């Protein structure tokens, strides 16, 4: 696949005759990464798939609002992050489930689903991640799994770098305690 810059992609998307091609290229370039962050937040493949689709639909409908102050990647991640968090909130409200009940359902999914990869240690980490508050889990996932800088995460989450460092530190401490105790 040819790597295009954000500017090249935007130019393709902004012209009516190349809009579809440009958007297809945008999806090809970022679909796996968008899916990855959604999957780490919601765990269930079908839900992550839905969030990925919603993310690109929203991006398509709102591309005229993209101001270029961040990269397309950062903008897409912000949409995917917000959609993941919204999805989790809706799911909790829809089933009138407490956070603990939802957490238990997700832990059972980690144990029973053939779609969740990893050995016992990886599954234990996934369960420990579920116990984190959503914001801490998001920051941990973006920093640890996606290897993003605090500056990139700041643009995605619209949170200060200092706040992100604190969230990441708290997440790591909670995970260490959870893994040590479990």
From TrEMBL:
Ranges where the RNA polymerase sigma factor 70 region 4 type domain occurs: 124-175
Signal peptide per UniProt: none
GO MF term (any one): sigma factor activity
CDD domains: Sigma70_r4
Domain RNA polymerase sigma-70 region as annotated: residue spans: 26-94
PROSITE patterns associated with the record: SIGMA70_ECF (PS01063)
Family per record: Belongs to the sigma-70 factor family. ECF subfamily.
PANTHER family with a match to the protein in the record: RNA POLYMERASE ECF-TYPE SIGMA FACTO, RNA POLYMERASE SIGMA FACTOR
Protein name per its UniProtKB record: RNA polymerase sigma factor
Native source organism of the sequence: Mongoliibacter ruber
């Amino acid at each position: 696949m040819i790597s295009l810059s954000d500017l090249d992609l935007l130019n393709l998307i902004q012209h009516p005759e190349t809009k579809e091609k440009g958007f297809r290229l945008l999806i090809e370039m970022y679909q796996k990464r968008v899916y990855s962050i959604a999957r780490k937040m919601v765990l269930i493949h079908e839900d992550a798939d839905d969030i990925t689709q919603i993310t690109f639909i929203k991006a398509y409908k709102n591309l005229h609002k993209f101001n270029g102050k961040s990269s397309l990647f950062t903008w897409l991640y912000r949409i995917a992050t917000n959609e993941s968090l919204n999805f989790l909130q809706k799911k909790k409200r829809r089933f009138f489930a407490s956070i603990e009940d939802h957490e238990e359902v997700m832990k059972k999914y980690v144990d029973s689903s053939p779609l969740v990869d990893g050995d016992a240690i990886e599954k234990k980490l996934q369960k420990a991640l579920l116990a984190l508050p959503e914001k801490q889990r998001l920051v941990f996932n973006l920093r640890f799994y996606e290897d993003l800088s605090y500056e990139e995460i700041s643009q995605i989450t619209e949170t200060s770098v200092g706040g992100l460092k604190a969230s990441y530190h708290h997440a790591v401490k909670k995970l260490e305690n959870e893994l040590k105790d479990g």
